[in-house]
Amino acid sequence: MKFTVITVTFNSAATIVDTVHSVLGQSHRPLEYIIVDGGSTDDTLEKLAPYRDQIASLVSEPDDGIYDAMNKGVARARGEVVGILNSDDFYADTRVLARVAEAFSDPAVDCVYGDLDYVDAIDTDRVVRAWRSQSYVPGAFRRGWHPAHPSFFVRRSVYERFGCFDTKLRIAADYEFMLRVLKRHQLKSVHVPEVFVKMRTGGASNASLKNIAKANLQCWKAWRQNGLGWSPLPVIRKPFTKLKQLRRGGASSEG
To answer: Is the dihedral of CA 169, 175, 178, 181 positive or negative?
Structure first.
């Protein structure tokens, strides 16, 4: 089973090497690695140069935001399974893709996801917040739940059947995509209760109160455009699940 991992970068010189090492160090093969760079002006491309022969496709050009870049990567993907790993994230160990492949051994499974640790941007051994997910059940999104997108893998056929990321939702298109495939289209998914990804703190959607509010508004729009109703409760509940992760030391079962 061939995997494609896509990393989107822009001025990521400080973290991109950790990301690349975590992907290329995976035990699972065959593996296609695609990097889509938004035209970085720092040393990102120079940092990538030593790995060029192990990167199947490296694109560097202006884009219309992170989700446009992700869509470019998906369009180039040739693996049966596609995962997206951000340029300041890294896989938790070398067997993440192997465990995902085991879950996909059931041909009925379309989506596989795991858990995620938020780590300190400098001391990546220090876990700041632990995102522990759960198996999808009807009603989960209404309770504020959703998987951690960097841990979310889908068959490439899912993108072909149901489309890619909505670039109009500039902060919450990953949420909308998961809502679309899991709730609206009810694709079969498997949760693997293990940490797949370490994410450095400081993501765009959580960078400020303004961005948090904007992301939550876009999540509400995601419900509307998928014909799933107008209730504000899923969006209201979503931030409280994050607070529970901190208060319980990461024991929360919702993201």
So the answer is: negative
pLDDT tens figures, 144-153:
899 999 999 9
CATH of the domain at 173: 3.90.550.10
Read off the pLDDT band of 255 (50, 70, 90): very low
Q: How many CB atoms within 10 Å of residue 110?
A: 23
Q: How many other CB atoms sit within 10 Å of the CB of residue 137?
A: 9
- For residue 255, is it within any domain? no
The least confident of 127-131, 139-143, 182-186, 216-220 is 216-220
pTM (2 d.p.): 0.89
Residue with tokens 């959607």: 205
Query: Domain total for the chain?
Result: 1
* Residue 46 belongs to domain spanning: 3-247
**Which two three-digit tokens encode residue 229?**
């109703």
Cis geometry, peptide bond prior to residue 30 (ω within 30 degrees of 0): yes
